[in-house]
Amino acid sequence: MALLQISEPGASPDPHQRRIAVGIDLGTTHSLVAAVRNGVVECLPDAQGRVILPSAVRYFIDERGQARCQVGAEALADAALDPRNTIVSVKRFMGRGLADVVQQGRLPYQFVDTPGMLQLQTVAGIKSPVEVSAEILATLRQRTEDSFDDEIFGAVITVPAYFDDAQRQATKDAAQLAGLNVLRLINEPTAAAVAYGLEHGAEGLYAVYDLGGGTFDISLLRLASGVFEVVATGGDSALGGDDFDHLLAEWVLGQAGLDASTPQDKRAVLVAARATKEKLSAADHATFACPLARGELSVRVDREQFVALTRELVARTLAAVRKVLRDARVERADVKGVVMVGGSTRMPMVQAAVADFFGQVPLTDLNPDEVVALGAALQANQLAGNAGADEILLLDVIPLSLGLETMGGLVERIIPRNSTIPCARAQDFTTFKDGQTALALHVVQGERELVADCRSLARFELRGIPPMVAGAARIRVSFQVDADGLLSVKAREETSGVEAAITVKPSYGLADDEIARMLQEGFRSADADMQARALRQSQVEAERLLLGTRSALAADGDLLSPAERDAIVGLMNRLQTIATSNDHRAIDDAVEALARGTEAFAAERMNRGIRHALAGRNINEV
Amino acid sequence: MNLDANDFELFGLSPRLAQDRAEIDAQWRSLQAEVHPDRFASEGAAAQRVAMQWAVRVNEAYQRLKNPLRLAAYLCELNGAAVDAENNSAMPPAFLMQQMAWREALDEAGDVVAVEALAADVAMQRKALLAQLTRTLDEQRDYVEGARQVRALMFVERFERDVERRLEALGQ
Known about the structure:
The structure holds two protein chains of two kinds. By secondary structure, chain A is α+β, with helices and mostly antiparallel strands. Chain A folds into five domains: 179 residues, ATPase, nucleotide binding domain (Nucleotidyltransferase, domain 5, 2-Layer Sandwich), CATH 3.30.420.40; 87 residues, Nucleotidyltransferase, domain 5 (2-Layer Sandwich), CATH 3.30.420; 69 residues, Actin, Chain A, domain 4; 110 residues, Substrate Binding Domain Of DNAk, Chain A, domain 1 (Sandwich), CATH 2.60.34.10; 92 residues, Substrate Binding Domain Of Dnak, Chain:A, Domain 2, CATH 1.20.1270. Chain A contains 14 helices and 27 strands. In chain A, α11 runs antiparallel to α12 and α11 packs parallel to α13. The longest helix of chain A has 27 residues. Chain A starts with 20 loop residues before the first strand and ends in an 8-residue tail after the last helix. The relative contact order of chain A is 0.10. The N terminus and C terminus of chain A are likely disordered. By secondary structure, chain B is mostly helical. Helix content of chain B is 72%, strand content 0%. Chain B has seven helices and no strands. Chain B is globular and about 60 Å long. The mean pLDDT of chain B is 89.
């Protein structure tokens, strides 16, 4: 339902201001979308005024026999009735295989054990966690487009800092499937720090303690005049509020001597567990009540009992905090403030444990549910070029070391954890047999010494090495992590120039053709005229590049000779003309031509920037 | 300035081991403020590619500049005395004796207090060796001798990591 857009005749805003850029917090239990509107950052409500979208997707067959799905509160309301087809907490399955899911037995789904990422059998067919997440993202995209009555230019999507490469890639794939242009993936604690820091003008070392529905992150950030530098990050991508629910549910079932065996019962006890947990945040005791197939469950729970039951989980978060302090080589006393993020930090015993550990009361004044989306929206607004002078800079890190398998199943670390991104590192290897013509590479992520204990990201082979004696080949393997924290790996035999490269589309990710297939199969076919969408995306890209080039010429045009300038202007004019056509391939070609034609100019501008940095001045002052 | 400039040129620092960490950090932030891909997010693929290369280069230099041992190895290499640790592990007997004594002490240390005492001892030793290395490189400009000292310090650092891992295992 579109809200009425009111604007005075002739008072349409500056074209820069019309670029709608959103921040999306794609959470385990709920998701939000936020945007900067009229200079104010806010979470966008749906037509009923609700900002929180429960991360629940229900697949069903309608009366005409069509497979359909509903998302959010309506889906959640049916979770107990139709648990097998109502997917909640899908984030825990992103980039994960079936073997990674620890409480399979406690979950009401029908898993499909496919190589790589697990899948779910639903009444509407087999669904990948990426497709389920894409439904949530598409709902938020629609909400934004209704709210602004315009298309989204791009989105910043948040992920737990502790997400590995497979989980990040899966998130980006989901966004692509939902038709979103991803401006950047950023880490949730970093987004929270942006919202918090800008609100409070904070400077110094801050800890962000983020306990969400399914993940725990702890990040240490140094805040200084608009720069948000992540010093170290850690956590547990499988520890969150859901685990408190599971423990409580099991304990209560044990007390009552009952069990939950049907999918309906399993879902019902988890729903009741969450309700009881939330009541215990305000009250000393609560009644855990839910109907089960074999009778009514009703057990009184005291807060002390709940605290004792979940003490172990809180202790696990504090162990991760200690490890991060050690990684950063700082003491607890160096931390100037502790920001609490995530709904699970509402539990009083969590707040008390954190206060006790740091010797200070944690900061809880920003809504812990909204703060991540708000920070992401601020960054999205800036990346879209809307922010103007008050620029902020996020310098984030990779959470887990990246390496290669070497002889004997050991890991050779190439990029250590907590390296600032983007980064790259190369390492030389050689052949160990005479006449060896191929080398198998196994890319892994994790901190353990043995390959078996790390996550396998990808395997690929360098073939066609000319036969040489053992040890004579010089194989340079280069790792590169981009600003989204995504890895690509390249191997090259230096004496012959033989190369092999992969963008890590890991064993746990989706292949590009799988995504293409999902798109083709008419994901959300109601609004999917693929041809029109492709054209629109090409036009947006063309517009984006033209605007960017124009502002670059205005700022640094003096670096060009008249002939160079004419060449660029010629390419711009050509793109401008073609952009009005209906041929998205021709537009893409003209975009690429302008991009290539401005590469040397971009390098010159970068040089100027560096000279200014060295002269100790900001480019804005020149 | 181009991508081949050395770390010191890139950060506008004099080529020596003794550096002011605060200056390195400040310089890093202002360089990233100019070259980070986020600064060019609305400018299309060409600017993104160039920004990515530069941001990677700046981070690579920063990692080296803020780690004294890596910086020392880099200085030696710039001055024609590559450290080449893999093919050159000869150490004076006295140094090796001390390494063995440390390893034994670590094996025998049964609790956190004992391991922490050892950690303090090793850290002190590392500081002394680093001070000596700074004199060798910055005052005597003897890069061949410097490379030898770097190799010794690499042993000490590796041992420190083992001590740290032990502390982690003990739950500290």
